[in-house]
Structures are given as structure tokens and as C-alpha cells.
Amino acid sequence: MEDSGRRTIAAVVKRVLLASPRGYCAGVERAVETVERALTLYGPPVYVRKQIVHNAHVVRELEERGAIFVEEETEVPEGETVVLSAHGVAPSVYANAAARKLNTIDATCPLVTKVHVEARRYAGDGDTIVLIGHEGHEEVVGTTGEAPDATVLVQSVEDAEALELPPDANVAYITQTTLSVDETAEIIDVLRRRFPKIRAPKNEDICYATSNRQWAVKEMLAEIDLLLVIGSRNSSNSNRLVEVARAGGVEARLIDDETDIDEAWLAGVENVGVTSGASAPEKLVARVCDWFRARGVVHVSEFRSTHEDVVFKLPVELRRTLALAEPQTGVRPR
Do residues 132 and 174 make contact, with C-beta atoms less than 8 angstroms apart? Predict the structure, then answer.
């Protein structure tokens, strides 16, 4: 039955096209490397507050190396090392960590830190902050924590239309970094119409990697019949890639890895697109490609490959320790 199923797919699927860019962004690379370096430097266990990035494979592999993932910093034994995830945290988390005398390494993505700085600045100016994002997402929780009394969450165009603020309110907006570019633009248009004097960030908050991956998907939609997005269910940017494809009239499926592929999805499909969220390692893409090759698909290729060269330095706390350790270990910080 397996061979018969494979022949059926081979007879229909002719090409697999790989979106570019895809996969790891600079913030994710930095966060994952932070945990890996901490494990090498301090030895296990190294505690990590929340998932370091939203990918089950990455978390599982780090657990195997000795990382212990906890929901809250208050669960970390006093004096131990804790890494804060790429999604950012509220100021109260730093205070709790200090009270427990934790060796805290902050792996917050610098582009998320930028949004936190904006929130503090707007709140300091007395503005009401409209935060565009998804309720409950760790990034939104952390950003809201910077100015909880001044922040109101807007998740949709409908929320923006229904938003009620005092007529004399000074208003500013900021956004989660992993949103749909198109949907966010629609929300911002409503806010600008309703609050003409609303303040905006100098540069958009949606990160370069999120924008680039959505654009790469849009570019390939005319060439494919189905898009497979590799990413975990709790990955915001991965879910947005699915939505972008569907909005463009192409069916899309979110998969953790090749074992999630349902052959029924491939009925009548000749051209399959593959991309991956910013938290998904490239080896998962390779496994999906191998899955198709094993079923007779010969043509697997990049679609309009684009190179990203953004690199973020490791957290300063880690670089300091690595600099001190270099004479003994020969390991250079970057």
C-alpha cells in the first residue's frame, strides 16, 4: 500500500518549490545560540522561562542537552541561571529574577526590545498606547507589562472601529512584531482615520523577517497549488504565512514536520510550495523535501532565492562571561 501511495503522488506532484527567505531569523538564531552557549559555559541545568522560541523541535533538542523549561521565573531555584525567551518579558519578571538572585540572561529579540522602548517612551509622554497584537501571546504580554495602565489591545479592524477613547486623549500605536503585514496595515488605516493625530513608530514594528517571509510566499502563489508551512501551532509568524497563502487563493497547511503531511492534501496537486516560520530550523525543510523525493518527486528547487544578512550579537550578559572565559576555553564571544 505504501509503494502504491508513493507512485500515486509521484504521478501527480511534479515540483516542490522552496520559498526564500524562510526559517530562522536573526533573533531566533541568537536566542537558540544563547541557550546552547549557556549550557556549554555553565553546564546543565540551565533554566529557560517559557519556550525560548515557538518551535517544539527546538525545545525538545535543548531539553535533551540539559535545558529546563519553566513557565515562570519564580519556579527557578535561587541562584541558578535562567534565560529569558526571545519574545520579551514585563519589567516584573526582571524584578522577580533579581529577588531570587538568578543569573539572568536576556535573549529578547532586539526588535522586540525596540517595541518595549517605544511603549515606555509613549507612556512617559502621557499617551494612550494602542497595541496591535494577539491577546495572550507572550510578546504582547511582555510589551503590555511596560505600561499596563496606558495600554489597550486591538486585535482586528473591528476592534479598531469600536475603540472608545476620551476625545482629548493623546494616542500612539505600536505592534507585535510577528503580525500579518496586510491585516496590520488595515488596522492602522482605521486608527489613523479615527485618530488623525495618532503617533506612530519611526520604523514599523513588524520585523524584517516576518515581512520578508510573507512577501516570499506572495511571490510564489501563482506557481503553486498548495503551500506547506513548517512551524509549530503556537508560532504566530507561521500561522500568518498560512493566512497569507489562503488570502491569495492558495490552500495552505501548517505542519510541525513531514510526519504531519496528509497525502489526501495532494490530490490533484502538481506544484507544492514549502516555507517555514522564523522559529523552524532548516533541517525540517530538508526532511519535508526528502519525504517528497522518497515518493518520486524529482524537481525540488529554490524559488527566487533571496539572502538575508542580519546578525544580532549575543546578550551582553553572556558576552561578558564568554570574554572572561576566553583565555581558558578559547571560545570567542560574538
Answer: yes
Identify the pLDDT of residue 8: 59
Measured distance CA(118)–CA(125) in Å, rounded: 11
Q: Quick check: is 139 catalytic? A: yes
Q: Chain-wide mean pLDDT for the chain?
A: 93
275's enclosing H/E stretch is strand 271-276
Cα 51-52-54 angle, rounded to 5 deg: 60
169 in Cβ contact with 128 (< 8 Å): yes
What count of other Cβ atoms lies within 10 Å of the Cβ of residue 318? 23
- Whether residue 138 contacts residue 87, with contact meaning beta carbons closer than 8 Å, is answered with yes
11 phi and psi, to 5 degrees? Answer: -75, -20
The beta strand positions in 111-205, using DSSP E, are 128-132, 151-154, 171-175
**Rounded average pLDDT over 162-167:** 92
**Complete edge-to-edge strand list for the sheet that includes strand 271-276:** 251-255, 226-230, 271-276, 15-19, 299-303
pTM: 0.91
| Chain segment 255-282, per-residue pLDDT in tens | 999 999 999 999 999 999 999 999 999 9
> Which residue in the list 73, 118, 139, 146 is annotated as catalytic?
139
Residue 106's DSSP bridge partners are 84
